[in-house]
Design goal:
The complex is a heterodimer of chains A (512) and B (317).
Chain A lengths: L11 E10 L2 E11 L4 E6 L5 H8 L7 E6 L2 E3 L4 H6 L2 E4 L11 H6 L11 H15 L14 H14 L4 E5 L7 H16 L3 E5 L3 H7 L2 E6 L2 E7 L5 H9 L17 E11 L5 E11 L2 E6 L6 H8 L7 E6 L2 E2 L5 H6 L2 E4 L3 H5 L6 H5 L10 E2 L2 E2 L1 H14 L16 H15 L3 E5 L7 H16 L3 E5 L3 H7 L2 E6 L2 E7 L5 H8 L4 H4 L1
Parallel strand pairs in A: 3-8, 3-9, 6-7, 7-8, 13-20, 13-21, 16-19, 19-20
Antiparallel strand pairs in A: 1-2, 1-4, 4-5, 9-10, 11-12, 11-14, 14-15, 17-18, 21-22
Chain B lengths: L1 H30 L7 H19 L2 H25 L4 H22 L20 E2 L14 E2 L1 H19 L1 H11 L1 H6 L4 H27 L11 H11 L4 H23 L6 H25 L19
Antiparallel strand pairs in B: 1-2
Helix pairs in contact in B: 1-5, 1-8, 1-9, 1-10, 2-3, 2-4, 2-8, 2-9, 3-4, 3-8, 5-6, 5-10, 9-10, 9-11, 10-11
Classes of the chains: A alpha/beta (512), B mainly alpha (317).
Bound molecules: adenosine-5'-triphosphate and magnesium ion (MG).
Adenosine-5'-triphosphate binds next to strand 2, helix 1 and helix 14 of chain A.
Chain lengths: 512, 317
């Protein structure tokens, strides 16, 4: 057994893990060590094999080769149940929660140790104890589908604590969180490691790695390429290890040359799914050759905003004018035909058809037109040809164009959507969190891509929570709070503080 | 008037019993994420096997056991095709209905005694008869509740038990999770395949019992198509009850009740044509179902298990 400098012995050791999927070697002889009370960050490009490695540790996949030692002893982990026996629990990239059930029900799901006749009262009070101990705000009686992603993630963590997990695996936990929620998560994990628990987390955000972790392991195309102590490295060095080249964290761009107005909203109002007013009179205009950023904490109407513009959501009042035409409450097809592209925030539910091939997912917008369709008949050869081009230009890592898109890694699913939407865009690109889940290299190229769209004379609406991203990519920034626009500023003149104030609900005039 | 009400209630319960067995069975199956459209065939097979058994042995208990065994065999086939082979569940279920309908009718022409030309049709066998519960059965109107056969009394117990099991026990929670999100259930250590097999077969057993009630009690004997499409009505009733066993009773009683009223109307010699009257229960069920579903959709309460009819494979995202 190996010891680190502090004389601690590892709680988890993975030795020579190899996993082959049809057409990809997802893990190639990978080693991993995790010490009690420490946090290990697992880095790597999209498709490098991080989720696969963790799914093996959590018992969801079986390794073809290699062994796992827990506290120095060889462990047979064949199912998530086995993993839990060894105190290993995982929060997956796509949450594993039953949406129609309550928090308490989700927490005890599959637990044999509960009484046969469930005592949900007792479960609830235990949940409250844990929430209190870790200051994790969760109501045991809430139904999952009514909760925000951040709350759902807290339920996932609570579930693991309830089951007595000693080792927490967090797969891109902060990808879907607001900065505040990420800070909160950070605090909880620190408290847990303080109590002797340990954690492995996967992320693409370098500042989190630096702040959060004790050790870093980097995977590249399934192979382990480096192991470093966090204090001995820097974000720059880490991204070079991942991508093999230097990465620009701030993209360069020319000054915008805005043309005529391409999108105009006049006092737009809309309800959300729960029947509450989500947009309370939004007005702004966007010109060709311009990127307008929408800043704000998620859940302040951004989703409804992108959906009314793309025809997925009804407007109750006001007008939406695209390229001089009134497009209020037009169908999504009408909007697609007028060249509007949409990168949705919920990529699995709205961006792809999981069971269809990568090629067909890529063709899903262009298939109506020649050359993909002629006289109403699809031409599979042309679709394949186009798909191959898009796969190589967006560097989508897939075993083949006809692989089902659901088998791709999280980041590569996102790239598939980006390739299709950017490819089909001719007037307006509505992008919600386009860099979510992308590795540093891919993030850089998406940002460049959006700027290229702008320079190509299209209007781009960029919804993001990342203020750095907004300030470097967009030309102007509008801040949303509770369904209203608090102010619009030139990004050259914007500063984090005044944006933060507006995000908190202080309108621009008062803020200044 | 009281006598009329009592008799309507009595017939309603008798007509509703087989529907409740089948509805609860199918609710359990669908809750695990498996759609079984083989109900009609399974009810017919349950009915014919139960009647043949009781005709030759005279044992009602044995007849029930044989019917249950028939249900187990047919639903195992459906389970194997749709869970292990991941076949299309609609196709598999419809094949079972086609097979069951044809085979039950075939058996009805072969299993009978030589004296009856090997036909089962027209024979008389042992049957379940109403058992009066002292005192309770003397109550006005409601007394009809306590003057029923044993299979109906069992229904009184099955409904609350099925509800309690589904909503209050660990196994019920696991069952609901498997139908809503097999990926989640799997990650939480629940054996999705096992759960689906268990409840598909349990459901099939109850469905066949529903069929047996028809040939042993409701319309004792065997005739072709003795179910009169009840298997299809049950599919509708499952939706009507929003996959909740405690609500199964209302749909079954609605259908049974209209049946009863129609009988009464025919008995009083109405001028409405018989075929129209016979259609009544079906039409009303469909109309009510449409209305109900519409109302529930407005309230955003559509309760179909999210993974209904979707095969599951480990390692999918
Ligand atoms: N169930 C599966 N079937 C087939 N191939 C798979 C499956 N799961 C993953 N892969 C492939 O294995 C490779 C590694 O995927 P994995 O999900 O581990 O990547 P990742 O490092 O987590 O990437 P990301 O940062 O994008 O989430 C990818 O090429 C992916 O397409
Ligand atoms: Mg991943």
């Amino acid at each position: 057994m190996k010891d680190d400098q502090n004389g601690k012995s590892p709680i988890v050791e993975m030795i020579g893990i190899t996993k082959q999927f049809p057409g990809v070697l997802a893990n190639d002889n990978v080693d991993l060590e995790l010490f009690p009370g420490e946090v290990l960050a697992l880095l790597g490009e999209n498709g490098a094999g991080k989720s696969t490695l963790m799914n093996i540790l959590a018992g969801l996949y079986r390794a073809d080769k290699g062994k796992i030692l827990i506290k120095g002893e060889e462990a047979e982990i064949d199912s998530p149940k086995d993993a839990m026996k060894y105190g290993i629990g995982m929060v997956h990239q796509n949450f594993k929660l039953v949406p129609t059930m309550s928090v308490a029900e989700n927490v005890v799901l599959g637990l044999d140790s509960e009484n046969f006749v469930l005592d949900l009262q007792k479960v609830s009070s235990r949940i409250k104890e844990i929430s209190h101990h870790y200051n994790l705000k969760v109501d045991p009686n809430s139904i999952i589908w009514q909760m925000s992603v951040g709350e759902q993630q807290r339920v996932e963590i609570l579930k693991l604590i309830y089951r007595g997990a000693e080792v927490l695996i967090l797969d891109e936990p902060t990808a879907v969180l607001t900065p505040q929620e990420s800070g909160e998560l950070n605090r909880i994990v620190k408290q847990m490691t303080g109590e002797g628990k340990s954690a492995i987390f996967i992320t693409h955000k370098m500042d989190e790695v630096m702040e959060f972790s004790d050790w870093v392991r980097v995977l590249q195309k399934g192979k382990l390429v480096s192991v470093v102590k966090t204090e001995d490295t820097s974000p720059k060095e880490l991204s070079r290890m991942m991508v093999g080249r230097d990465v620009l964290f701030r993209v360069e761009k020319k000054k915008a040359t805005p043309g005529e107005v391409i999108l105009e909203l006049e006092n737009v109002k809309a309800m959300n799914d729960k029947g509450l007013e989500a947009l309370k009179g939004i007005s702004f205009s966007l010109r060709r050759g311009e990127i307008l950023g929408i800043a704000g904490v998620a859940g302040n109407g951004q989703r409804e905003l992108t959906e009314v513009i793309t025809g997925l959501h009804k407007v109750t009042e006001g007008r939406i004018i695209i390229d001089g035409k009134d497009m209020t409450n037009k169908s999504p097809l009408d909007l697609i035909k007028s060249g509007v592209s949409h990168i949705p925030s919920d990529r699995v539910a709205m961006g792809i058809v999981g069971d269809m091939s990568v090629a067909n997912n890529l063709a899903m917008k262009e298939y109506r037109k020649a050359p993909l369709t002629q006289h109403g008949i699809l031409n599979p050869g042309r679709i394949l040809e186009m798909a191959k081009k898009m796969i190589s230009s967006f560097m989508i890592s897939t075993p083949a164009p006809y692989t089902s898109v659901k088998f791709l890694s999280g980041g590569n699913i996102q790239k598939t959507i980006l390739a299709r939407e950017i490819g089909a865009c001719s007037t307006l690109l509505i992008a919600a969190y386009p860099a979510r889940g992308l590795d540093v290299g891919a993030t850089e190229s998406v940002r460049k891509e959006m700027i290229a769209e702008r320079d190509g004379g299209k209007g781009v609406l960029l919804v993001s929570e990342d203020l750095d991203e907004l300030m470097s990519v967009s030309d102007r920034i509008a801040v949303m709070n509770e369904g209203r626009i608090m102010g619009i500023v030139d990004s050259a003149e914007a500063d984090i503080e005044s944006l933060g104030l507006m995000m908190a609900g202080v309108p621009m005039e008062e803020g200044k | 008037m009281i006598a009329l009400l009592a008799s309507i209630l009595a017939i309603t319960l008798r007509a509703g019993t087989s529907l409740i067995y089948a509805t609860i069975g199918e609710i359990y199956t669908e809750r695990s994420g498996i759609l079984n459209l083989g109900l009609e065939g399974m009810m017919l097979m349950g009915a014919v096997s139960a009647f043949a058994t009781v005709y030759y042995t005279g044992s009602l208990l044995l007849a029930l056991l044989v019917a249950m065994l028939t249900g187990i065999i047919l639903s195992s086939i459906h389970a194997f095709l749709s869970i292990t082979m991941r076949a299309n569940q609609v196709v598999s279920g419809l094949s079972i209905t086609l097979f069951g309908t044809g085979f039950a009718s075939f058996l009805g022409q072969r299993l009978g005694p030589e004296s009856n030309g090997h036909y089962l049709i027209g024979l008389i066998g042992n049957k379940f008869t109403p058992v009066k519960i002292p005192f309770l059965s003397d109550l006005p109107v409601l007394g009809a509740l306590f003057n029923q056969d044993i299979l109906t009394y069992i229904v009184y117990l099955i409904i609350p038990a099925a509800w309690f099991f589904m909503y209050k026990t660990r196994a019920g929670l696991n069952l609901r999770a498997v139908g809503e999100s097999p990926q989640t259930a799997d990650a939480m250590g629940i054996n999705v395949f096992k759960v689906r097999y268990i409840y598909t077969i349990l459901g099939g057993t109850l469905v066949a019992l529903g069929g047996a009630h028809l040939s042993l009690s409701y319309a004792p004997g065997w005739t072709d198509n003795i179910t009169g499409g009840r298997g299809w009505i049950v599919i509708a009733l499952v939706i009507f009850s929003m996959w909740n066993p405690s609500r199964a009773i209302w749909g079954a009683l609605l259908f049974g009740g209209i049946n009863a009223i129609q009988f009464r109307l025919q008995a009083t010699g109405t001028t409405i044509s018989a075929p129209l009257l016979n259609m009544l229960p079906y039409i009303v069920t469909i109309v009510v179902l449409v209305l109900m579903t519409w109302v529930e959709t407005m309230n955003k309460k559509v309760g179909a298990p999210a993974a209904l009819a979707v095969p599951y494979m480990r390692g999918e995202k």
